[in-house]
């Protein structure tokens, strides 16, 4: 990997285009380095993972509405055309940017797919819907798709390693627009200049505040990454037509760094693969066993482990979760969000309350993507009582481990101190989730398939499950025009469970 110093440059400075970060990223996207077998294997796992969580969310209102919007933008096929992109759950082909939108919402709605945490947060699997949609629309092969996704993951992970957005209250999808645009550039075999312009446009149109993940969290939390993917598709389309982007987008005097991030004097060290270097960043990412914000994955496993030592939960006087700064201020009491203790809060808000999550995991000994968030579950008096006893505290050691670049040290867990009414204190800690690559039960293909089967049960017919899984396993071998197999359809009875989408503009 080569590290690039990125800082603001005045307009009067001599700053050649080939030194811009967007150009450096475009060079990575257009580098013909082969994709390692282990990278391709993990990409297939994440295609399966995305489909699994999309199946589980298929009949939820935000997903139904996004699907209805896509259905208003069909792509009519001629007998000789294979253009258009698929949308989870339904037949037909649709305009690629709208397919990317609908599928992006389905994938993110339950906050249940892959993650990478470093200087910033991210869900790199958000790259799959826009890159796959363009691959289907343009009749590309499975090998092309694998190359495009390897780039999407690589660029997003590299940006997340280097550039913190949340400390400046910028939403993390600002790293997704550029990564998806770069991945599409790789997929299509575009030249460096065109990819450069698409990256600049994608970043410029996808920078927004983090209010989408603060206070009363709404369905826009799922829509924001889908919007970034849709913007990436449109940015590539415009760049192909010869349209340019603001530049230098990161380093300009009125650019992203100067006014949205660290300011005119800030410097960032961005690692990117050198010429000919394989793209392996996906191997550093991890998926979720539980449908909850990633920093609550280890606390869920910890709660399940500790509950047997406590016995009667009514004897708990207080619980303090000692954890990293990120966990404390994003999903803990350091956020100062009263909504995180509100029994009537939205699912999206409860998903970002580690106090609620730890209480329910202690009581139930399990976690379910629907039942654990149900209103009657959140409003149980004994749950509310326990929930109110839980707080978080930042521990510098957990913060240090959160930011460590050593994979054996990097941790996203917590130390739980449970004080009983009798004065006894029960202490335990867990650094990483059981499903993490270094955890007690790391996910491999078998676990990804099992997750798909579990979430698809009652949604996708068994023979359709079999067909999709077989196609996904063959992704690297799929020929041009065969990528439409990387979706699933469901019966009308299943779709009828979704709330009817009100009429919008389209």
UniProtKB/TrEMBL annotation:
It comes from Rhodococcus wratislaviensis (Tsukamurella wratislaviensis). Pathway: Organic acid metabolism; propanoate degradation; Carbohydrate metabolism; tricarboxylic acid cycle; isocitrate from oxaloacetate: step 1/2. It holds the Pfam family MmgE_PrpD_C. The lineage of its organism: Bacteria, Bacillati, Actinomycetota, Actinomycetes, Mycobacteriales. Its EC number is 4.2.1.3, 4.2.1.79. Monomer. Residues 19-268 form the MmgE/PrpD N-terminal domain. Residues 290-472 form the MmgE/PrpD C-terminal domain. The keyword Cell membrane does not apply. It is an enzyme of class 4 (lyase). NCBIfam families: PrpD_hiGCgrampos. It catalyses: citrate = D-threo-isocitrate; (2S,3S)-2-methylcitrate = 2-methyl-cis-aconitate + H2O. One of its GO terms (molecular function) is 2-methylcitrate dehydratase activity. Keywords: Lyase, Tricarboxylic acid cycle. Belongs to the PrpD family. Residues 64-83 are annotated as: Disordered. This is Aconitate hydratase. One of its GO terms (biological process) is propionate metabolic process. Residues 66-83 have a biased composition (Polar residues).
